[in-house]
């Protein structure tokens, strides 16, 4: 009888074969797949697991326990999340993080005291995939202001409200080739694009004009909260005042735009600027910014709440702008060599997006001469140097690793995967294959089974798991060799003892 997917899932978790699993088995699947324990999607499950304590559940009980998270859990166990080998990926990212941490070039922005006082040593990296897999390294609980990383959000919010044609009647979409706050407009008298100061002042002037000031402000914080998976954000009043007091250039830009008739009729310059400074002064953390990136990577739907915040078309436009204009005077070089949409800011945070995969926040306050975080750029360069995340990597036979989910493998490749996992002692991968309903008895063209390989390579835990799953314990390969014979030949004492112990138990059971 063919087993159902639900049965396969349960069987993959039931390592001892006694028909029961516990809290630990469930938490292990989640942590292995990169789903954080504090993931808001797991709130209900966490409460039920606490209630469960040290008890165990059967297949029916598992279903009740998982409730609404059943789908997520099944996909996690089957390795169907966008980065299936998340822990391995995370280890490699951590190694990059540690290397980049040693860089201490650059200078913290000092045009306002609130930024000048931030310790240059601060460093955080956070990632959030479109399936909500999360990675957090370094100073991830320390707050920083969004500054220019709010610009793509203001642009998308304006697109949501007015549509592309109307927004672009007030702001261009070409890289300016000039500094981000240069007193210059394009040939039509409009700001060159929404990623530079003039452009963001323009989009700020467009958003929710009908609302009272307080409500407009709330709209902004609600927007950031929704994009970041309901994480609360704060408004940094001191930064806002400082920004406002040192804003001669931004005032000059706004007046220049008004002189050229760029604003919609009725725009009040102080109102537009105050709103722009407010957006720059929103304080949040790296995990929140990574989730904002994940919402953009996911076409505007927040992966943690399932809420659609921006329309797909508007996100596509926002990412295009980030790709061509998001990194100040380094935008062209960054698009060429790193090849992902990103928006940099004076607080040292870079909001980066790998479309259809993940959002990344890198925060480190020391900036280079273009105004980009030195460690931020260096981290993203290394990341893309290692993994095939550059937008055009797929066009070349890349030597880089691709941690993304492979297209569904056929039965032959599953046999190969099982054999490889057994020879590497990767029990988690074996569990994943069982969860897919695959047969761990399958042999390759030499008649070698996963059990042969696990025995030959001395993978005791894998041998135990395979035997517990009920695989045939004496299959013969084409040379007539059994797994136990392999273990004896290679002097795998623990495995020989394991077989001996099991046959003793079987003999006792028979005689009883
Ligand atoms: N508040 C800053 C300004 O408008 C933002 C600068 C930035 O992050 O690029 O001058």
Q: Please report the distance between the alpha carbons of the first and last residues.
A: 30 Å
**Annotated CATH architecture of the largest domain:** 3-Layer(aba) Sandwich
Strand order of the largest sheet: 5-4-11-10-9
Helix proportion: 40-55%
Q: Give the domain tally.
A: 3
Identify low-pLDDT runs.
none
Which ions, cofactors or small ligands are bound in this entry? glutamic acid
Question: What is the CATH class of the largest domain?
Answer: Alpha Beta
Enter the CATH topology name of the largest domain. Beta-lactamase
Q: How is the biggest beta sheet arranged?
A: 5 strands, antiparallel
Count of individual beta strands: 12
Summarize the structure.
The chain is α+β, with helices and mostly antiparallel strands and 512 residues long. The chain is built from 24 helices and 12 strands. The structure holds glutamic acid.
């Amino acid at each position: 009888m063919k087993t159902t997917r639900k049965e396969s899932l349960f069987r993959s978790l039931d390592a001892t074969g006694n028909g029961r699993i516990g809290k630990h088995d469930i938490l292990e699947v989640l942590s292995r797949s990169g789903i954080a324990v504090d993931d808001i999607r797991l709130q209900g499950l966490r409460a039920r697991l606490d209630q469960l304590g040290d008890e165990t559940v059967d297949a029916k009980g598992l279903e009740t326990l998982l409730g609404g998270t059943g789908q997520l859990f099944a996909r996690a166990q089957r390795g169907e999340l966008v980065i299936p080998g998340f822990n391995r990926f995370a280890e490699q990212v951590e190694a990059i993080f540690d290397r980049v941490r040693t860089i201490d070039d650059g200078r913290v922005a000092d045009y306002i005291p609130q930024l000048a006082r931030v310790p240059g040593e601060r460093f955080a990296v956070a990632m959030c995939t479109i399936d909500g897999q999360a990675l957090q390294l370094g100073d991830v609980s320390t707050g920083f202001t969004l500054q220019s990383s709010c610009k793509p959000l203001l642009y998308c919010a304006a697109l949501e409200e007015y549509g592309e044609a109307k927004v672009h009647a007030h702001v261009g979409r070409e890289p300016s080739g000039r500094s981000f706050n240069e007193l210059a407009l394009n040939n039509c008298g409009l700001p060159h694009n929404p990623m530079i100061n003039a452009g963001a002042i323009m989009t700020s002037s467009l958003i929710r004009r009908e609302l009272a000031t307080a409500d407009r402000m709330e709209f902004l914080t609600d927007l950031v909260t929704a994009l970041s998976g309901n994480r609360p954000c704060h408004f940094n009043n001191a930064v806002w005042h400082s920004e406002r007091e040192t804003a001669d250039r931004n005032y000059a830009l706004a007046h220049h735009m008004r002189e050229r008739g760029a604003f919609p009729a009725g725009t009040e310059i102080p109102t537009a600027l105050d709103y722009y400074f407010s957006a720059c002064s929103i304080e949040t953390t790296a995990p929140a910014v990574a989730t904002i990136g994940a919402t953009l990577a996911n076409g505007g739907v927040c992966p943690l709440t399932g809420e659609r915040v921006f329309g797909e078309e508007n996100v596509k436009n926002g990412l295009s702008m980030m790709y061509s204009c998001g990194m100040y005077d380094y935008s062209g070089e960054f698009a060429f060599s790193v090849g992902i949409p990103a928006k940099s800011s004076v607080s040292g945070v870079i909001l980066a997006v790998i479309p259809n995969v993940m959002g990344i926040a890198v925060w480190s306050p020391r900036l280079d001469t273009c105004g980009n975080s030195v460690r931020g750029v260096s981290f993203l360069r290394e990341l893309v140097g290692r993994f095939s995340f550059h937008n055009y990597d797929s066009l070349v036979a890349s030597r880089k690793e691709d941690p993304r989910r492979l297209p569904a493998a056929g039965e032959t490749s599953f046999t190969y995967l099982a054999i490889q996992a057994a020879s590497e002692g990767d029990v988690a991968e074996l569990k994943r294959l069982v969860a897919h309903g695959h047969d761990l008895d399958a042999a390759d063209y030499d008649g070698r089974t996963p059990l042969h390989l696990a025995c030959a390579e001395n993978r005791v835990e894998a041998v135990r798991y395979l035997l517990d799953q009920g695989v045939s314990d004496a299959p013969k390969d084409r040379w007539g060799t059994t797994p136990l014979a392999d273990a004896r030949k290679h002097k795998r004492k623990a495995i020989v003892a394991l077989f001996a112990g099991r046959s003793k138990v079987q003999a006792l059971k028979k005689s009883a």
